[in-house]
Amino acid sequence: MDQSIDGVAVGHVGDGDPARLDEVVRRAQAGDVDAFELVYRAHVSAIYALCGRMCGDDVEAKELVQDAFVRAWERLRSFRGQSSLGTWLHRLAVNVVLEKWRTSKREALRMIDDPDGVELGASATSMDLDTAMDVKDATARLPAGARVVFVLHDIEGYSHDEIATMTGIAAGTSRAQLFRARRALARMLDL
Amino acid sequence: MMHAPHLEEDDRQGAADGTLDADRMREAYAHLAVCGECAADVQRLRMVMMRTREAPVAIETQEDLWPAIRARIDRSKIVPLGVTNAANARGARRRPWLAIASTAIAAALLIAALMEMQRWRPSDVAEVPAAADVAFASAADSSRMYENEARRLLNELEMQRAMMTPAARASLDSDLVVIDRSIAELKDAVARDPRNVSLQRLLAASYRQKVELIERANNAG
After folding, report:
1. Which residue of B has its CA nearest to A157?
2. N or C, which end of chain B is more exposed by having fewer CB within 10 Å?
3. ipTM of the modeled complex
4. E strand or H helix at A43, and its extent?
5. CA A120/CA A145 separation, integer angstroms
6. Which CATH class is domain A106-191?
7. Yes or no, beta carbons of A37 and B151 under 8 Å apart
8. CATH of span A1-104
9. In order along chain B (221 residues), what is the average pLDDT of each group of 10 residues?
10. In chain A, which residues have their Cβ closer than 8 Å to the Cβ of B60?
11. Residues 6+ apart with CB under 8 A from B62
12. A117: DSSP letter
């Protein structure tokens, strides 16, 4: 999506000219909300996909996307370019999701911490299991704790140690959740 | 032909995602070469990972979320200092002691500022230009160093925020706001009087306080 700031075309911010991208980010850091909109437009699809995978609910995912970008606006000055903006936004969005759960979903956190306390795939009904689901639906049907660990490890590429740091669970618990999630997915995907 | 016992779950999963160490991987592959059941199971796990990685990394939202985000930014007039004004207001309402602590920090900064002014004003005037330049450059370097360090630590802290209790997070954010406000005021003062060594030193001291606060939060996390 080509857009402009003060009449100067900046092109697609996500994969455009790095110098132009730096300029857009710099202006957003200086408080230019219009420049920040370009950042939003460039990254919203990836952040929406991430939030959707982590929470498994479209309505909640949209709320989390909003929270993540408002947080990004608040923290944009701390972005110094050591990582790509996309990576920085990803990590920030992951934290927003985990924080939200920490404050509002004790049950989800219990499941993260207690892999034996849930039967993975239990939310998938027998009717669902008659036909293979697509990956998105199957992931959404994982219990919250297993889904979070699976998304962070197998999709986002975090290590078990990093997941342990972010969520407060033990690395071994993270590993157990991941294994169970993969097993449940194999069953739901009819593999 | 006798087979070794089937692979344990850890080894099957590790063989599928390649996270076993070299020795265990060699043993696992030796077993998989002769055990069709384990080989099929490991292949099934690999298929799960492959199918997952084929899923789109970006999904277009059907609805434009920007107007709502823009409205929230405009409504709260968020100052990009690392916390929301709303969060501060909530924190202050819930914890009067925190407001007192924050005020104490601000008062300490102010007292420190006055003492520094008293302490340095005569020597600032008396310093020969070369010495003043060195002092100014040193203080400015300290400010920059602490500012950079504070930014680095804030990035680290971002990772740990999810683990903090809401109360601890709000408390930290509130204290950061107080210090950031002092820093902002000192930066304004430095901008108006850029050659004032005392102000530069105060700015450096404020950044140092911020660094120490974040370090304490990081260590506590």
Report:
1. B53
2. N
3. 0.78
4. helix A33-55
5. 10
6. mainly alpha
7. no
8. 1.10.1740.10
9. 79 92 92 94 93 80 90 70 41 44 56 53 42 60 72 72 73 78 78 74 77 74 53
10. 45, 48
11. none
12. G
